[in-house]
């Protein structure tokens, strides 16, 4: 059996219990060494085979799985949650072709690890009820109707992955989409790692702040009014708001 495992944003203690149990019993560990905290590998068996996939092609990864899957448990480790920019589907398709069984174990995305460090909520009532998760097109294209400038017109809470090295273009697209230059923008580098960095700015100055910090990868860009202190309260805990668990007394 092959297990695709989301191992969280970095902090080893953010592994799920299920992920930890599978890592502990796995005979083979395949991991992206460029993204995963090496401390997580300490949970593996002492005799487990470990392979760094950061320099491997898809074909080489699948070949590695094929060569080691007979009567063995394989843990294929992905950073964060593999469903977000994890290139997991193509691996599953290849395993389907070979009738190799697999299971997906979700993990804590760096998205949620980062916002927890900011102590913010993506969906504060009456301010934003939508979160847009996206990236800027680079060597990997994005659909034309998902260009950053188009998504920016919604003014929803926004998390931009894989784009920190193009921060000037990110700013250009956000302004083109109609954002005000004073809109808050926060950058979280290596969320929950020991060397985590948080940069707080606005659209007008975030590019220069990022360049000064020399951050060029492994960071998420957050955009939106949800980043600023907000005084509104939800209806959920309002004593005058009744629902099936808090009924109005007659």
UniProtKB/TrEMBL annotation:
This protein is called Precorrin-4 C(11)-methyltransferase
Which organism's genome codes for this protein? Fervidobacterium nodosum
Looking up PANTHER family in the UniProt record yields: COBALT-PRECORRIN-4 C(11)-METHYLTRANSFERASE, SIROHEME SYNTHASE-RELATED
* Alphabetically ordered keywords of this record: Cobalamin biosynthesis, Methyltransferase, S-adenosyl-L-methionine, Transferase
Enzyme superclass (EC): transferase
**Where do transmembrane segments lie in this chain?**
none
Task: Tell me which Gene Ontology terms the entry assigns under biological process.
Answer: cobalamin biosynthetic process; methylation
Instruction: Give all residue intervals belonging to the Tetrapyrrole methylase domain.
Output: 1-206
**Which InterPro entries is this protein grouped with?**
4pyrrol_Mease, 4pyrrol_Methylase_sf, 4pyrrole_Mease_sub1, 4pyrrole_Mease_sub2, Cbl_synth_CobM/CibF, Siro_Cobalamin_biosynth
Q: In the record, what terms sit under GO molecular function?
A: precorrin-4 C11-methyltransferase activity
Query: In the Enzyme Commission scheme, what number(s) does this protein have?
Result: 2.1.1.133
Q: Which is a Pfam family this sequence falls into?
A: TP_methylase
Indicate the family of this protein.
Belongs to the precorrin methyltransferase family.
């Amino acid at each position: 059996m092959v297990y695709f495992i989301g191992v969280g944003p970095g902090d080893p203690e953010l592994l799920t219990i299920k992920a930890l149990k599978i890592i502990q019993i796995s005979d083979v560990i395949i991991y992206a060494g460029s993204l995963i905290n090496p401390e997580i590998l300490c949970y593996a068996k002492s005799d487990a085979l470990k392979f760094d996939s950061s320099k491997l092609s898809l074909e080489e990864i699948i070949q590695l799985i094929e060569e080691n899957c007979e009567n063995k448990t394989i843990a294929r480790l992905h950073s964060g949650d593999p469903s977000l920019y994890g290139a997991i589907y193509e691996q599953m398709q290849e395993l389907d072709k070979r009738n190799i069984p697999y299971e997906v174990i979700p993990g804590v995305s760096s998205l949620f690890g980062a916002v927890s460090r900011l102590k913010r909520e993506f969906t504060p009532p009456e301010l934003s009820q939508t979160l847009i998760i996206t990236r800027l097109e680079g060597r990997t294209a994005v659909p034309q109707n998902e260009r950053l400038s188009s998504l920016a017109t919604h003014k929803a809470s926004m998390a931009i992955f894989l784009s920190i090295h193009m921060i000037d273009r990110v700013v250009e697209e956000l302004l083109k989409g109609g954002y005000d230059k004073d809109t808050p923008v926060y950058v979280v580098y290596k969320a929950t790692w020991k060397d985590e960095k948080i940069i707080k700015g606005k659209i007008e100055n975030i590019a220069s702040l990022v360049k000064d910090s020399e951050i060029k990868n492994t960071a998420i860009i957050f955009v939106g009014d949800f980043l600023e202190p907000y005084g509104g309260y939800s209806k959920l805990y309002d004593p005058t708001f009744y629902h099936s668990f808090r009924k109005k007394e007659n």
